[in-house]
Design brief:
Bound molecules: 2-deoxy-2-amino glucitol-6-phosphate
Helix content: 25-40%
CATH superfamily of the largest domain: Aminohydrolase, N-terminal nucleophile (Ntn) domain
Distance between the termini: 10 Å
Strand content: 15-25%
Radius of gyration: 25 Å
Structural class: alpha/beta
Strand order of the largest sheet: 3-2-4-1-10-9-11-15
Shape: globular
Largest sheet: 8 strands, antiparallel
Oligomer: single chain
Number of domains: 3
Length: about 600
Amino acid sequence: MCGIVGYTGIKNAKDIIINGLKTLEYRGYDSSGIAFVNEGKIEVYREVGRINALEQLVKDVQPAHIGMGHTRWATHGKPAKENSHPHTSTNRLITLVHNGVIENYLEIKNELLKKGYTFSSETDTEVVANLLEDEYKKTKDMKQAIINMMKRVHGSYALGILCADSSDTLYCAKNKTPMLAGVGEGFNMIGSDAMAMIKETNKFIEINDLEFLVVSDKNIEIYDQDGNAIKRDSFTSNVNANDISLGTYDHYMLKEINEQPTVIRTLLKEYLDNGKTKIDSQILSEIKNADRLYIVASGTSMHAGYVGKYLIEELASIPVEVHIGSEFGYHLPLISKKPLFIFITQSGETADSRVALQLVKKHGYKSLTITNVAGSTLSREADYTLLLHAGPEIAVASTKAYVAQVTLLALIANELASNKLDLNLELSKVATSIEDIISRKDQIRKIVTDRIVYSRNAFYIGRNLDYYVALEAALKLKEISYIQTEGFASGELKHGTIALIEDETPVLAIISQKHIALNTRSAIQEVRAREAMTTIISMEHVANDDDNFIVSDTHELLAPLAMVVVTQLIAYYAALAKGYDIDKPRNLAKSVTVE
Ligand code: AGP
C-alpha cells in the first residue's frame, strides 16, 4: 500500500510529483506529503486527506528541481499529519518516504532512543530515518549508510530518501515492496509503479529486492546490499497515459464496468486464433502435465479462481484447489505428485500471494502468474506469466480484472478439454449480454434505491457457480457501499445464518444454472417466509417473468461473467446513492503490498 514518486531534473518537481501522486492515490489515500529541495534545504509538507489537500498546501511553494512525494495507507499510527510521510530524522539530515512494514522497528527504536534520537510519530518509518542518520553520522557516506541500514532492518520497504548533505541526489532502497526507476532525458524518477511516471517517460528500470539506487538527473546507479554496482538495461512500457484518464465517466469503476465487453473481445484476439488457443506451448504443457492445479489468490481474484476451478473440473476433469493467499503462505497443504501453482492477481503485487509464491518456489514447484500488470513482482518471480490485457484498473473495486481472469481461465479450461466449446462464439455472446445489462443500468439503479440502499446488511445467495458469483457480489457491495453483505451457498443459509433474516433484510438470489435453479428458489421461499426483501437476478433460460432482473442467455458455464456485472452495478449505484467515494472506498488500497 502507499505510493511513492520522486523526481530530479530540469522541470518543476512539484507538478510532476503531485500528478504522480494523483495516479498513485489508489494505493492509499488517508494522507500524503511531499519533500522538495530548495536552495539546498529540504522542505517538508504533509496533509491529512486526499492529494487535492496537499496540492493546495504546496500551491505557493517555489519551483524545485528535486523532490519526492508519498500517499499513505496507514499501518503504524492513525492517519494524522504527524504520521504522514515524509519523515525527517532528529537532526534533519535524512528525510524519507516509505512503503512497507519494518518488522523490527521497536527494537531499533529503543536503541536509538538510548542514543538520544527523538520521535514525533507512531510510525515504523521514522525509525529508518533516524537509523540512517545514525549510520550517516558514523560513515559520512550515504551509500555506506544505506548498506548498513539495509543489513539492520527486517521487513518490507520501498524507500525514497533525501540527505541534506547531498541534496541533488535521490536515494532509493527496495525489499519486497514494488519500486521502479523511470529514465528520462535530463531527468530521472523513482515510483511505485509505471503509471506514476508515464506522463514523463515510458522507459523504466526494474529494481530487485535488496537493491538500492543513487539517482541524479543524469544517472541511475544500482547497487546490491553489499555495495556492488549492478548493470541493468531499461525496458519500454506499453502503458499509455490515455488508458488512465477518466474520459467522460464520473468514476473509474463505471468506466471499467463499461470496458468489460471490450476486455473479453481483446482476450479472444490475444488467446484465440481460428478457434485454436494461442497460449505459449510451454505453459500449456505445464498445465496439461499437472495432475492437480493449485490456484492461489486473494479477494476478487480468488473469487475468479473459484469459477476457474469449476470450469476446469467440469470441462477437463482436472482437479483444482483454490487457496487464500494469506493462508497458503504459511501452511502448505498436502501437495500432489505433479502440481502446478497458478497465482491470480490483478496487480501482480499482492504481498500475501507473493509470500505463497516464495514458499512454492522454495519447494521447487513450478508456478504461473495470471496478472494484468506486465513486469509486476509476481510476474517476474513466477516461472510463467499470462497477461490479462484488461488495461489499467484504477478503481479499488475490481471489476474488469475479474471478468478478464474468468475469461482467461475459461480459455485454459476449454483448451484442456480439447476445445469442447466454441469459445469465440460463446464469449462473444457473453460480451453482448454484458452490453445489454449495461444498457439497462437504470433498471438496476431502481432496484438499488427501492430495495437495498437503506439497509444495514444484505445477503447474496446462489448455488454452485452462482454461489461463487454471490461471493464476489457480496465483496463488491460491502467494499464500496459499506452495507454488511455476505455471500452464501443458498442451501447453507438454513444451517444457521437464516437466524439473521429479519423483516425487510435484503436477500439477493443469483440464478443462472438450470440444475440448481429450483433449489435456490426454495431457499428464497424460506427467507420470504421470514419477511426478507428478496430480489431475484436470473438468466433468461431459468427465469420467471416476475424476477427482478433477467440477464440474456449465455452458455451456462460462462454465466458468471454476465451475472457478476449486474452485481457490480448494484454495488456502484448503492455507493453512489450514499454519496460515498466509489473509486477510493474507506480503509482500502488497490494494491495490497503489505501482509
Ligand atoms: C476487490 O474489489 C479488491 N480490490 C481486492 O479484493 C483484490 O481483488 C485483492 O486485494 C487482490 O488483489 P490482486 O488481484 O491485485 O492480487
